Amino acid sequence: MKTKHIQHLYRRIGFGILPATLNKLSKKSEKAIINELFESSKKFTPLEIDISELTAIYSSIIKKESTLDSETRKKLQQLGRKKQIEFNIAWVDRLTNTPEILREKMTLFWANHFVCEDSTISYIKNFNNTLRKHALGDFRAFVNAVSKEASMTKYLNTKQNKKQKPNENFARELMELFTLGVGYYSEEDIKESAKAFTGYSHNLKGDFVFRKARHDDGEKTFFGKTGNFSGEDIIDIILEQKQCAKYICGKIYRYFVNDLIDEKHVNDMANVFYKDYNIENVMRYMLTSNWFYDKKNIGSKIKSPIEFIVGLESVVPMDFKNPKQLLYIQKVLGQILLNPPNVAGWKGGRSWIDSNTIVLRLKLPSLLLNNAYISKEKTGEVDANVEAKKEAFKKNFGKRFKTDANWEYFNTQFKNVKIGDFEKHLLACQVSESAKAYLQSLEKVSKKEYCVQLMSLPEYQMC
Fold it and tell me: Which of 66, 69, 263, 295 has its CA 20 to 30 A from that of 243?
């Protein structure tokens, strides 16, 4: 397998690849590399944080040992917000440091497909781990699991969906966003399928509860079929539509291959997926297809804010002085994990970049990794104002982005890489002529400085 193809593979199913790993894999066949990739992600490791304090309070309320008064409610809200930040940071850390890289990247993908938002950390944690558990498994089981998650029943009002007064929110989004796409169902299909999901609820712990008394057990007509359908039956009928396989494969293609759809390739993927709705099988098909490595697909996608942040941390690990700084960066770049803009999620593609975010993206490597300053001086040259420039830059930006950057790790990983070869490792696409000339003028600077310069180029935004 060509080196550039291995790099492309790991930029798409992960966040890049370090020189030593690349060197090791370059000696293996494509089949061996792909097999190892899936084998390393076979294991499902839940993402956990300590929420015992919150659990103890809820348990006390359930047992009626204490009451949910205003003071307790306020404490729960404060603890909940704190733990949500903690879980966000733990998720970024997992993305940066995991052997199960494909499963984690798929979890990130599914989080923007089965979009959900909640304020209860235990429900958030459970939902996130459901995405992780099913990320490479059976799509049918996945959809059913998502439909029964406490966070989803709250977010799309399934909990309020009763026989006497059906709520259509989940039924609508199930088809429009989760399985079929706009235009492949009727309003009547929404109404009838909503009846099938009546009675879906959960207890305080977040466990699924089916409230039979609230369920409409009468006949429903859905996609031309009539019967006493349950929620599971509705999902089965939806998956019988080949449009479901095509819709999911289209989203996978846009996320992992190219924002511009190739209908033939998506149809070929859909043919594979429709056979058994096995996510691993269709992902394996895609990653072993020659077209996945076409020149037009390499370096063609704009990194999402999370891909950008994790990519930086993978090369130069960072310890944020204040954990909230990581959330602030996500906010200003336009993607806060666990906080989607709406039920449709983030649009992705070109929407990641605007006049504000591109300026910050270009400055961020220096803000985080180089004491908030980009040196533009060649080795040996002296600028009398350089210290003043540094101080001014730190004053304006340093406080918000103070980190301990682990350059020792970077030096170890890039020890045997010549400075002229850094581009091959850090950039997915060719640099412009002006950028190339600028980089050539900097070849005498340190590896650290050169790395920061490469990460500060517009080309670094691509993967």
Answer: 295
Read off the DSSP letter of residue 227. E
For residue 235, what are its two tokens?
């999902």
pTM score, two decimals?
A: 0.94
Q: Which of 344, 348, 342 is nearest to 308 (CA)?
A: 348
Which structure tokens are listed for 7?
């790099």
Query: What gap in Å lies between CA 167 and CA 173, rounded to an integer?
Result: 12
Distance CA 350, CA 84 (A): 28
Of 182, 177, 43, the closest CA to residue 112 belongs to 177
Whole-number Å distance between alpha carbons of 220 and 278: 28
As to burial, measured by CB atoms within 10 angstroms (0-12 exposed, 13-18 middle, 19+ buried), residue 165 is exposed
Question: Cα separation of 116 and 344, whole Å?
Answer: 9
* Amino acid identity at 292: F
Model pLDDT for residues 212-257, shown as the tens digit of each residue = 999 999 999 999 999 999 999 999 999 999 999 999 999 999 999 9
Over residues 327-384, the pLDDT tens digits come to 999 999 999 999 999 999 999 999 999 999 999 999 999 999 987 654 444 433 444 5
Name the nearest CA neighbour of 222 among 249, 188, 251, 262: 188
